[in-house]
């Protein structure tokens, strides 16, 4: 319910908002679940997929191997429409508006709810590729309406 200023680094963001680190720890602590192909849509690096609860074919969106990459999940809380993309930083400035327009095409503008963005993946690498991508993604989402 309030605007958060984007710090200069992902580390500064986590230090300024300790619940982020706790939520990440909880996510990492969850056990891996094996899923079959029924209802699964796998998203590879540089791909994007959008679905909604009304879709009878897709019930799981997934991706993996996000080392320096990030998996971005954008979800509309009102209707459950969800976009998942596997971003590698190739063209973040173009990707984020595409993610936004994709989820909005599944969202009824009259429907209550908000957009929630979740970033998964990356690590503290020597060249700081992950940290740069985190900042690029958050900066681009911050520029969106």
UniProtKB/TrEMBL annotation:
UniProt keyword Ribonucleoprotein, yes or no: no
Hydrolase recorded as keyword: yes
InterPro entries in the cross-refs: NTAN1
GO cellular component: nucleus
Annotated GO biological process: ubiquitin-dependent protein catabolic process
GO molecular function, one term: protein-N-terminal asparagine amidohydrolase activity
Residues annotated as transmembrane: none
PANTHER family membership: N-TERMINAL ASPARAGINE AMIDOHYDROLASE, PROTEIN N-TERMINAL ASPARAGINE AMIDOHYDROLASE
Name this protein carries in UniProt: Protein N-terminal asparagine amidohydrolase
Species for this entry: Neovison vison
Gene label: NTAN1
């Amino acid at each position: 319910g309030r605007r958060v200023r984007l710090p200069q680094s992902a580390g500064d963001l986590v230090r300024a908002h300790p619940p982020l680190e706790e939520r990440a720890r909880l996510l990492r602590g969850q056990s891996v679940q094996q899923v079959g192909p029924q209802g699964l849509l796998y998203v590879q690096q540089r791909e994007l997929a959008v679905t909604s609860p009304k879709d009878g074919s897709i019930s799981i969106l997934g991706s993996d191997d996000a080392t320096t990459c990030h998996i971005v999940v954008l979800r509309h809380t009102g209707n459950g429409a969800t976009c998942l993309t596997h971003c590698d930083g190739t063209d973040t400035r173009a990707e984020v508006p595409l993610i936004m327009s994709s989820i909005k095409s599944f969202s009824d503008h009259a429907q209550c709810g908000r957009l929630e963005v979740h970033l998964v993946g990356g690590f503290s690498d020597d060249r700081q590729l992950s940290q740069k991508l985190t900042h690029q993604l958050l900066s681009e989402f911050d520029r969106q309406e």
